[in-house]
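Is this the right way to post structure tokens for a design question? Let me know if I should format differently. Anyway, here goes:
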């Protein structure tokens, strides 16, 4: 005689909630600008650009981006003091911001957060630990400095 296993049927509904961090990080001077958003779409990216443009409004800001559809939407209005540079496809390793995201993701790994508020608090705490010196050390690429005369 063989025993047959019986698997209980349990209703389960998996729910995902997300928050998104938009950020710009300077490998030149370590300055940063970050905004947490509820979605990753054109409308939120527009808010990020508009808010970023008001930080030191007389400064020209160059943002290196991947080719995400929301980065290239025809409905975007790029502020006059912001210029967008798009990386070749499938080359996130060339984006200084991706190096920041990797550091934050490593710190986030194997942590349990029960609410979006806890995640937001975690993000806030970790991003405030990013000093200008740390940002420069994480984001600097040799190509950023080679042959260029940056002024401060």
């Amino acid at each position: 005689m063989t025993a047959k296993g019986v698997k209980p049927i349990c209703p389960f509904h998996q729910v995902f909630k997300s928050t998104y961090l938009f950020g710009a990080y300077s490998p030149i001077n370590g300055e940063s600008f970050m905004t947490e958003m509820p979605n990753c779409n054109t409308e939120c990216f527009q808010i990020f650009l508009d808010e970023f443009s008001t930080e030191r409004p007389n400064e020209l800001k160059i943002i290196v981006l991947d080719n995400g559809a929301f980065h290239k939407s025809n409905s975007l209005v790029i502020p006059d003091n912001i210029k967008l540079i798009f990386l070749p496809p499938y080359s996130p390793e060339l984006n200084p911001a991706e190096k920041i995201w990797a550091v934050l993701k490593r710190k986030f790994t194997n942590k349990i957060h029960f609410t979006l508020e806890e995640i937001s608090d975690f993000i806030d705490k970790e991003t405030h630990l990013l000093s200008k010196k740390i940002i420069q050390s994480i984001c600097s690429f040799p190509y950023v400095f080679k042959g260029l005369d940056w002024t401060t």
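Format looks fine. Someone answered above. Worth noting: DSSP finds five helices and four strands in the chain. The mean pLDDT is 88.
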